[in-house]
Specification:
19% of the residues lie in helices and 30% in strands. With 376 residues, the protein is α+β, with helices and mostly antiparallel strands.
Length: 376
């Protein structure tokens, strides 16, 4: 047990600041897709249920007929429909005024008095809001893996990994898009682990994925998401170095992530374009979140995600709605997506910080996501 002098024990300490041992988690995927609260890729559908219809374009050819004969008969195009249930996240945080009345402000000096604990309440509001931002980031990261699980615990649904919960949220990404990418049924595209830097054909793999995208949905491959472990293999890959010119550096541009956390701390991510693959941007994202008690990276050491440019034509955030009444006299109003408010209670006096978010990503074209096993 540490010992201190009587002077140290009785003296009033100087409080330098309020700190966090971790910075505010990043939200790069929400920024990339425009699917954060208030983003530019939001569809406010309302309610708790939605759906979309599928009416595909055609690549078939019109039949010829001999002169003097009638037209060939074809069937109408098949129409599909996909129902969607909007995910509803809802939490509250009770704060007793007795516990925060006439206390010093967070980060303030002993002797300073924050009579109503406003700085403490503001910090807790930010904490609650961050949990909702984190969940949107989690949903998007798992959309790129094909889905996630929900573990029923009483009235709570705890987000977990696929097959680790009571039921799964399945984004219908094909099984072939979640392995070594046998996208067209002709064999695995990633034929050699990218960790084998001398022989892995990264250029050929990316070109084959781009060609497969043309056949599957017609959108070009433009983005690859991975972590720093995958980046190390790419930087030393023989094929990338040779095609880019051995007298040159292997990349043509390398930009540090420009976004900063709420504390002003720069992100740890990168965006890189290789000389040999000028049409692709590699997004390096090492962040993660605590999923059911375990810190889990968004992108692990063995996978990379291949995507076209983001767009509402193949993926967007659907925001549902519900009636929110902030107090007993409030007649209520319809709130879309994320809504937060404070509700008073008495005996004992206090507040409840409450938030609700009705939102779920809609992956309209699951074949736009290729979650490839590139290290094995």
């Amino acid at each position: 047990m540490a010992t201190v002098s009587l002077h140290e024990l009785l003296s009033a300490p100087v409080v330098t600041r309020v700190i966090s041992t971790i910075k505010t988690p990043q939200s790069r995927l929400q920024g990339f897709f425009g699917m954060g609260a208030g983003g530019n890729n939001i569809n406010p559908v309302g309610g708790h249920h939605a759906g979309f219809d599928i009416f595909d374009k055609t690549r078939t050819l019109a039949h010829g007929r001999a002169p003097g004969t009638g037209p060939s008969t074809i069937s109408p195009n098949v129409i599909g429909h996909v129902p969607v249930t909007i995910y509803r996240a809802h939490e509250k945080m009770p704060l007793l005024e007795e516990r925060i009345f006439r206390t010093r402000p967070l980060g303030g000096q002993w002797g300073d008095v924050d009579n109503r604990g406003q700085r403490y309440i503001t910090s807790q509001e930010e904490y609650l809001a961050q949990r909702f931002r984190n969940f949107r980031e989690f949903m998007l990261s798992r959309m790129l893996r094909g889905g996630f699980g929900l573990l029923a615990s009483g009235d709570d649904w705890i987000p977990v990994e696929t097959d680790a919960g009571t039921f799964n949220v399945d984004f219908q990404v094909p099984a072939a898009s979640k392995t070594k990418l046998n996208l067209l049924g002709a064999g695995d595209i990633v034929g050699t682990s990218w960790a084998t830097v001398a022989t892995a054909d990264v250029i050929g793999d990316c070109l084959e994925i781009n060609a497969a995208f043309e056949q599957l949905h017609g959108r070009p491959l433009r983005h690859v998401w991975c972590n720093s472990t995958i980046l190390q293999y790419l930087l030393t890959n023989t094929g990338l170095k040779n095609a880019g010119g051995t007298a040159n550096i292997v990349f043509s541009s390398w930009n540090q992530e420009v976004t900063r956390s709420a504390e002003g701390i720069p992100g740890t991510g990168h965006e890189i374009v290789f000389r040999a693959l000028p049409f692709l941007t590699f997004h390096v994202y090492d962040a993660g979140l605590t999923v059911n008690g375990t810190y889990t990276k968004f992108f692990d050491d063995t996978h990379a995600v291949f995507l076209p440019d983001p767009g509402a034509d193949w993926a967007e955030m659907l925001e549902g709605s519900e009636i929110v009444a902030e107090n007993r006299l409030d007649p209520g109003s319809e709130r879309y997506g994320l809504a937060a408010w404070t509700e008073r209670f008495t005996q004992p006096a206090g507040f409840e910080l409450i938030a609700v978010d009705n939102a779920v990503p809609a992956l309209y074209i699951p074949t736009c996501v290729a979650y490839g096993t590139v290290v094995y």
